[in-house]
Design brief:
The complex is a heterodimer of chains A (352) and B (329). Chain A has 352 residues and is mainly α. Chain A has 16 helices and four strands. Chain B: Keywords: Cell inner membrane, Cell membrane, Membrane, Plasmid, Transmembrane, Transmembrane helix, Transport.
Chain lengths: 352, 329
Amino acid sequence: MKPSANRSLISRFVRENATTMTLASIFMAVLAVFGLILGDRLLSVGTFQSIAFQTPELGILGLAMMLALLSGGLNLSIISTANLCALTIASVLQFTIPWGDAGSVLWLTWQVGAVAAGLAVAILIGLLNGFIIAYLGVSPILATLGTMIACKGLAIGLTRGNVLSGFPDPIVAIGNGTYLGVPLAFLLFVALCVFVSVVLRRSSFGQKVYLVGANEKAARFSGIHVKRVLLLTYALSGALAGCGGLVMMARFNSANASYGESFLLISILAAVLGGINPYGGTGKVSGLFAALLLLQLISSAFNLMNFSQFLTIAIWGALLIGVSALRSGTGIFDRLHLFEFWRAKSAVSENP
Amino acid sequence: MPKTIQRWTRSHEFWLLAVVIVLSMFLTAATDSFLTLQNLFDLLTSTSFAGILAAGLLVVLVFGGIDISFTAIASVAQYVALMIAKTYPIGWFGVFLVACCTGILCGLFNAAIIHKVRISSVIVTISTLNIFYGLLIYSTRGDYITSLPSYFREGIWWFEFTDSNGFPYAINFQALLLVVAFLMTWVLLNKTNIGRQIYAMGGNEIAAERLGFHVFGLRCLVYGYMGFMAAIASISQAQLAQSVTPTTLIGKELEVLAAVVLGGASLAGGNGSVFGAVLGVMLIAILQNGLILLGVSSYWNQFFVGCVILLAVSATALSQRRRHAGLAS
């Protein structure tokens, strides 16, 4: 391969992953600064394990939000979907008699059935969102605002605001267990990231989501069944929110109608920080992943420095504004033309 | 004249008003306590906070923007004003002055960032919500203020009178602020040149910019006004609660948004009326109040509110679609 071809490949990679690279650089910088201040307290296995424990909750909800954002919408009902899903799983587990003895295959099937019921509820809410948005023509923010309030109300009404707690070991292990030192929830999160990434990049459905998000009218005129794409997008978003609910209930070993409400706006923040265009059409899972790790790193470092968690959320907000300013004002990797400059130079040296 | 009536019966406000009237008539018939002065005054007092915020948010939505950070602005304004009032004898005027200045400053901060960074206002205000709220709790350590000045504790009561059962009634502080907030907003949007510019901006920002509108100035005014309203609402709420808790207001932002949108304001900008916003706020308040009076457990409150919102936005979207189809054929 000629060196110039090689360089253009690198430059293309950098251009396509500008956000991820920016965030990775910020991550390294933050890690270096806090590493110097905190030393071994930050750069320890324990810290990274705690980051890996905390990321999945917000991360899976972030994936759910991301799908809606990519299609040019927004899903405000992810948290209430997650809680309703968790409560469904919890009530199936608590109000049915376990089949078989603890540890038997039948006993495991019973739990899988409970999880399946929860996910079915989450998908139903997603389909309801998708139907209202795609077939009735309601703007996503309003439709999901309505389902958010209604689902939360349903969860509060059915449980009277109470907490359901105490689940069998395998469910609790999803939130608190580790495999080779890596939290199971993190493995689940990575698996879901890979799944969403493959769906978005490699399937025709994923490509259609991007097209609908970029320009709905153009997508419709080019023969894409926009309504069906939106319906499926919100169903998938609901299913992912349900997975988020499963992880939350497994971590707390309990479920409640109002867990995780602070995650709603933070999940939008994380997605936009990760380079997902809030108007739809562009963004990658890798960007979201980098953004989440960065947010958790800051949170963990501040925690070690005994700063309040509220200072952390203030810094998160400032970080989003700062990165957005960089992106819209200078677009560091775009405007510096770093790699184009190298390519031009090498082109000159090859043709004297 | 018939044409005016026809236009009126087709409007969003007409249908909303019809729903509110039918609901009120049903509640009057079904319960003894709905149509009593006591209940109506309680209703007005408890809606005050959400109502004043709705007035501010309406202006932002008409302008074509959105603000999520107003509950955080309200918390900050409330805390700063009553912190100062606790130590210095600044009186009513001082409390309002400090709160409003704080609120307006926060609003201007939003406007400046939206304008300079050029990212969508949802994203900016989600960030500033976290910034304002995070810094407030960090610097106050989440402490409550319970020892309020005596004049503030007593509030303002006008036109006091007693009913046959001996209950005292008055135009209280909250109701007064609510009415003033909606009147001011109505004057701003309908009777001033600036109001017309705000509608025009919401209708088509690029066209308005080319016409020579001072976009940044308008944006500052709109978000500053939202901050101002958040400050007034926060004082009303603090007086009602008789204390300042920095954490209680956060989380109400989407409910206020739902009320304004229920009143017919479009998220795309350029649309919405003060009357509609009043009706939207009223509908949700009466619905919640009515469910309690009917003996429905308050745990089910939100479920019904959510269903009403879903029904209303779906019905509006469907009727708009039908009208567009009618125009096309």
